[in-house]
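During the reporting period the student researcher (J.K.) took over the structure-prediction task from the postdoctoral fellow and processed the backlog of single-chain submissions. One of the processed entries is reproduced below for the supervisory committee.
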Amino acid sequence: MAAIKLEKKLIYTGIITLKTGLHIGGTNAALNIGGPDKFVVRNPVNNIPYIPGSSLKGKMRALIELANGCATITSRGEAKASEEPTSVSGQLFGVATGKDNNRPSRLIVRDAEMDTSHPEMFENTDLPYTESKTEVAIDRVTARANPRTFERVPAGAKFKVNMVLNIYEGEDEQRLRTTLKQAIELLENDYLGGNGSRGYGQVAFDIDLDNPQILTY
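J.K. obtained the following C-alpha cells:
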C-alpha cells in the first residue's frame, strides 16, 4: 500500500445568493393544519434554514459526472456513477466501491449557514425566513386539481459557503481546481434542491476561486 502525504489545503469562502426560491426538504414532524405540505431543512437549534453540505456536494458531483461522461445508464434505466478513481469525477470527489481502488474525496463541503444580518428582508415572509408557495397539479385524464404547498427560502436570501480542497503530493492541483470551478459553473446554470424544472433553486456564487486561503504542511 502506497503512502500519501497531505501537501496543502485550499480554503474557499464566499456567498451563495438565491435567484429563485429554494426548497431542500426537511422533516414534516412539525406539520401544522393549514401549513405547507413540504418543509425545508432547518437547524434544530435556532430554526434557521441552511443548505446541507451533502446537498451542495452531491449536486456538483452529479453535474460533473454528466458533463464529463463519468456516468452510465444501466439496463434498468438508472444512472450509475463511474467507479474509476482516475476519472474527472473520481479524482475530485473520490470513489467508495469497497474494492482496492477506493479513493477518498479531495473536497470537503461544509453546511452553508444563512446570512441573517439583514432581518428586514424576511419581515413579510409567511414563516420565519421562508415563504409558502402553493402549486396545483392537474390530473391529465380526469382534470382533477390537487393543490400542494411547498415551503421555500425566498429569492435574495444569502448563504455562507465554505469548501476545503485537499492537495496531496504528486497530484495534479490545477486539474482539481479546474474541476471544482467547472462544478460551480454547471450548478449556476442548473438548480439546487428540488423542483428545479419548475423554476426553483437557481443560485449564484460569489467566491474567488483563483485566490483561496492556502495552508501548507
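The committee noted the following: The chain has one domain: 6-206.
J.K. will present the remaining backlog at the next meeting.
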